[in-house]
Fold this sequence. Notes:
The chain is mainly β. The chain is built from one helix and nine strands, in the order H-E-E-E-E-E-E-E-E-E. Strand 4 and strand 5 form a beta hairpin.
Amino acid sequence: MKKTPFVIVVFFVVLSVGAQYKNDIVIEPVLKTDTTTIGQKIVYPQVQNAEVTMSRITIPVGKSTGWHKHDYPVFAYVLKGVLTVEIENNKSVQYGENSTIAEVMNTFHNGINNGKEEVILIAIYLGEKAKSLSTRKE
Length: 138
């Protein structure tokens, strides 16, 4: 059978990869969800040219992102500070250090730093090549 060598190779590759994550390596899930922060079902975009963008975002004290929305799933991790997110339905949510965010989709929101230190977060956008990561509210 021609498939037998392939199956054996895959088996040993899987064993090899698994071995790399044993001993002193700690894997901690920081977010596992199927909904956004307001309960929207997360849906992966059907796009021609998928592109993942990971950004480090710094929001100075007293500043905000401005009202905007995302057409694609966006996930974030707060490294430093406290981020306040206002959502267009008059809801407001705070995220402190080491918080995770499954951002709202197709809903205008505004990220604000009302704290005493800069906010730093890592954001991961599941977008599309040559398309904007967000749309500003006019």
